[in-house]
Amino acid sequence: MNIFIRNGEGITDTVQSITALLRDHYVCPDTAATLSATLTEKLREGEFDQADSGADLAKKMNGVLKEISRDSHLGLVYSEQPLPMQLPDPVRDEEINLRDQANNYGFAKVERLPGNIGYLVINEFVYPEFAGDTAASAMNFIGPTDGLMIDLRNNSGGSSFMVALVASYLLEAIPPTHLNDIYWRSHDVTQSFWTLPYLPGKRYGSGKPVYLLTSRRTWSGAEEFAYSLQAIGRVTIVGETTGGGANPGGSHRINDHFQIFIPNGRVINPTTKGNWEGKGVVPDIEADSEQAFEMAYELLLKDVKV
């Protein structure tokens, strides 16, 4: 048993820190209050004292967090190794940047298929200051194709700025298109995301068919990309309903072994006035994720021949 878990005060301090962070940062203050009260009650009843490891404690607490909030982003993480005093900045951390570079900034494959169909696999929306050149190269390559498939089946999300950049390639420069809004509780402001009038690569434009492939693993920023473009009728989505994680936020260090991701933003799509939190993005054409490629490809070949 981890010494931290044997120390009752350690568990108490962890729970108290979490409840304070929830009250200060969680996007829905009423839900934060309910979460805090419930965690405090379960602590008092000794439920968390039954945890036999740090991982087990995180599991028990996440059960409470998920049951009440229904928020797939909100979650406590246990680390066997001591956490750094300051958590990595995803924009400035050298290790993260090297990992992104090794993964080609999320662009796993770009290909021209028979029938002049473009195929682009994006597994992560890395910040555009790093991934912008890669996106431009990919779009230049597939620019001459007559139809395009973008594969998001293994995309776990990323930057809303990169989502807007890639979406801009699929729409006209003028007029700009309002893609998404995010309300941030921390500053009580709403941030808007629009398509960009200038792009460093070849704009695909709005006249050619684009299909998106999704799975249950498609999540967060990848869902934002799919939801925003589906809402304005720009794409056809083929595959499975996505994971359902809409609320953005950030990680907070609690102590040497625990950190928590707390959403402090709420997506408000300008077209639907809603989002995909807890529901996922529902495809236009439902298909098992393993069959989505062949189905979309066949449909695209028919589209470009019309």
Automatic annotation (TrEMBL):
GO biological process, one term: proteolysis
Gene Ontology MF term list: serine-type peptidase activity
UniProt keyword Cell division present: no
Highest taxon of the lineage: Bacteria
Keyword Ion transport recorded: no
InterPro entries attached to this UniProt entry: ClpP/crotonase-like_dom_sf (IPR029045), Tail-specific_protease (IPR005151)
Ranges for domain Tail specific protease: 80-288
Keyword annotations of the record: Hydrolase, Protease
SUPFAM superfamilies from the UniProt entry: ClpP/crotonase (SSF52096)
Protein name, UniProt field: C-terminal processing protease CtpA/Prc
Organism of provenance: Paenibacillus phyllosphaerae
